[in-house]
Design brief:
This protein is mostly helical. About 70% of the residues lie in helices and about 0% in strands. The protein contains seven helices and no strands. Helix 1 packs across helix 2 and helix 5 packs antiparallel against helix 6.
């Protein structure tokens, strides 16, 4: 017989920090990373997944795939020291998800986009990935989000 974990047991709050939106971003990153490493279309990776993807993961993956040319141009324009091909695969794909959210999901606050992307970069990237992603997405946000505000004012 399995009993419930004690209130102070670490098992009691294993999903305390679970956020389905963060989880969807992580799944999207994994799919984009795999497609990038394999050199295949994102669609092929998605077709091999045996469980249905949630709506946000699908939106992010399809959004990045559909707008990848523009996204990569924005990343390249704001990266002075690194070509997009030289970037670590994880950083490149975190930047793609974050850039898509900046240009394609205007309902998501810029701070949330940056925070989520930096969190993924720190979790899966190198020691410098968090700072790199933060700097890059901050620069992209200044041109995409602030420019959009000016156009509507």
């Amino acid at each position: 017989m399995v009993s419930d974990p004690a209130p102070n047991d670490d098992g009691a709050d294993w999903n305390r920090d679970f956020d389905p939106r963060s989880d969807a971003r992580e799944r999207a990153l994994n799919i984009l990373f795999e497609a990038d490493v394999r050199g295949c279309p994102v669609r092929e990776v998605v077709e091999r997944i045996q469980v249905p993807l949630d709506a946000l993961t699908t939106l992010l993956v399809e959004g990045v795939a559909e707008h990848q040319t523009r996204i990569d141009e924005l990343i390249s324009t704001h990266s002075h020291a690194w070509s997009i091909e030289r970037m670590a695969t994880t950083d490149r794909n975190v930047l793609r998800v974050g850039t898509f959210e900046l240009i394609g999901r205007m309902d998501i606050p810029t701070a949330v986009v940056l925070n989520e992307a930096v969190g993924l970069a720190k979790r899966y990237g190198t020691d410098d990935s968090g700072r790199f992603v933060n700097g890059m997405l901050s620069a992209i946000a200044r041109t995409t989000r602030e420019g959009a505000k000016s156009d509507t004012d």
